[in-house]
Amino acid sequence: VCVSLNLYPPPLLGVRVSDRCVLLMAAAQDSLYLGFDFSTQQLKVVAIDGDLNVVHQNHVLFDSELPEFRTQGGVQLHADRLTVTSPVLMWVKALDLLLDKMRRAEFDFSRVRALSGSGQQHGSVYWRRGASETLNQLDPDQSLFSVLDSPVWMDSSSSQQCQDLQAAAGGALRLAEITGSRAYERFTGNQIAKLRQNRLEEFQDTERISLVSSFAASLFLGGYAAIDYSDGSGMNLLDIRSRTWSEICLEATAPHLDRLLGAPLPPTSVLGPVSSYFVRRCGFSESCRVVAFTGDNPASLAGMRLQQGDIAVSLGTSDTVFLWIQQPRPALEGHVFCNPVDWQEYMALLCFKNGSLTRERVRNECTGGSWEVFSAALRETPLGNNGNIGFYFDTMEITPPAVGVHRFDSDDTEVEVRALVEGQFLSRRLHAERLGYSIIPGTRVLATGGASSNKEILQVLSDVFNAPVYTIDLSNSTCLGSAYRALHGNTLTVLPLILLILQQYCSSASVLIISPDYCDLKKGKKENLVKEVKEKRWNKEKKRAPEADP
Ligand SMILES: Nc1ncnc2c1ncn2[C@@H]1O[C@H](COP(=O)(O)OP(=O)(O)O)[C@@H](O)[C@H]1O
Ligand SMILES: O=C(CO)[C@@H](O)[C@H](O)COP(=O)(O)O
């Protein structure tokens, strides 16, 4: 591995070859690094070794493996159809179950040098007074939490609190200037304000508020984990330039809120060793470190190794589009978060609520619940769908704030499938361009998330963006990014993550490239230029990638 690293120009980032060897020795081969993801529908884990090879993967699906919590897609929709929560005990139990599954698969916890993770963004967890004393026992039956139903990112019930916060901050744009986003219902500060107004007793019984990410880190630490700058940017509370809580926003949300939140920290912080509970329960080494957990989209940015000019499209429960940016230019649409890899830089993100769940609904109604038939419908229909465009907002959308299904007059199920997917990706592109992104020759679209395993969906993505789409063989870049961050936090506290990235380029990853269909829309002619290249090195693929047709 040292030899392959030497292929890169020696002056790179001013790091000497000897330093690189030290770096690699530090990430010794028998060491393992864990990345967890507490996402909307499941808890996932990936283990990598010191060479960044994936050596173990596992998951727990909330709906089917923990049916006692009666969730649908990992959440509970309340009667007002706006409030959406998840049972916090379900997440605790899921971790218990996942660790059991790993043990049954003979995963060797004693080799884990560091772990990190991510959580669905914006969700909040409320720890009851006195919880810090029992936290290191992790017994799900204990009453650790003052609020059992955690608000999650799908919630849109805090419109009044959003208006109040914007008024206090001096308007929507001013709030965006401070926190990176105008007020959004799902953002944690507005959820906290709503809880304080509607459930004062539970609020007063709370000693600490965590994000889903810092809650998960707290379980591993056996003590309260800091909120990291990157996930903290999704709260409408953090000043994204000073990286401290904004006084104006705190005051408008709840009194003495800074005490409940704790001080935010850089996403690469090492928080401490894993708790003695996990040492006893799983056989973790006492020296295994917990690196700050972050939001699932920031973790995904780390896992996808985004480069300048790339655009990432995550097709998880939500669809998100994100970019690495240097300077924040917050606007009334979209979000600017602190960057999870280089905490002095930023990332821009757009979130679309009607993503995979809407595709699943149309799959169930039009193609008998089969992704194969859904894919076949995309193959059988022409690009452009003969002009049949649809916009499908089953629930109140985030970008744009709209609801309802707006479609053409036809009952053809194949046409419906293409209209849905093309409409979704047209919207992703349109809003990305409004955010300032331009599709130019050389643009790479990096796809991830559950639906990125579907080649026909990726073909539509490539056609609509008129750019090649790349994906790694593991559609789960969030967990992978968390495992990279664990290694980074553990061994590279003074060296940039980019070294890891270069190392990854040297290993052979399966890369799938899909290039746009060049198609004469008038004639409906379709030349299928899908190219699959497997077992190739990512850097070689980059050189060969076909340029987008301007
Ligand atoms: N073959 C497929 N084609 C299209 N979508 C798929 C396919 N397989 C899984 N999905 C979608 O992936 C989604 C889950 O993605 P994932 O990234 O695991 O979500 P999350 O991290 O939010 O829990 C499911 O809701 C499902 O609709
Ligand atoms: O709200 C957002 C981003 O702002 C969502 O992207 C959540 O972070 C949920 O992520 P997934 O479970 O869909 O990956």
Automatic annotation (TrEMBL):
A GO BP annotation:
xylulose metabolic process
- Top-rank EC class of the record's enzyme: transferase
For this protein, what is any one GO molecular function term? D-xylulokinase activity
Please state every residue range assigned to the domain named Carbohydrate kinase FGGY N-terminal: 32-303
Alphabetized, the UniProt keywords read:
ATP-binding, Carbohydrate metabolism, Kinase, Nucleotide-binding, Signal, Transferase, Xylose metabolism
InterPro entries for this protein: ATPase_NBD (IPR043129), Carb_kinase_FGGY (IPR000577), D-XK_euk (IPR042024), FGGY_C (IPR018485), FGGY_N (IPR018484)
| Domain of life assignment | Eukaryota
Q: What is its EC number?
A: 2.7.1.17
Pfam families in the cross-refs: FGGY_C (PF02782), FGGY_N (PF00370)
Q: Which SUPFAM superfamilies match?
A: Actin-like ATPase domain (SSF53067)
Q: What are the Carbohydrate kinase FGGY C-terminal domain coordinates in residue numbering?
A: 312-488
Q: Which reaction does it catalyse?
A: D-xylulose + ATP = D-xylulose 5-phosphate + ADP + H(+)
Gene3D superfamilies documented for this protein: 3.30.420.40
Query: Which cellular component terms (GO) are annotated to the entry?
Result: cytosol
Role, per record: Phosphorylates D-xylulose to produce D-xylulose 5-phosphate, a molecule that may play an important role in the regulation of glucose metabolism and lipogenesis.
Which family is this sequence assigned to? Belongs to the FGGY kinase family.
* Identification of the protein by name: Xylulose kinase
| Naturally occurring in which organism (per UniProt) | Lates calcarifer (Barramundi)
Q: Which gene encodes it?
A: XYLB
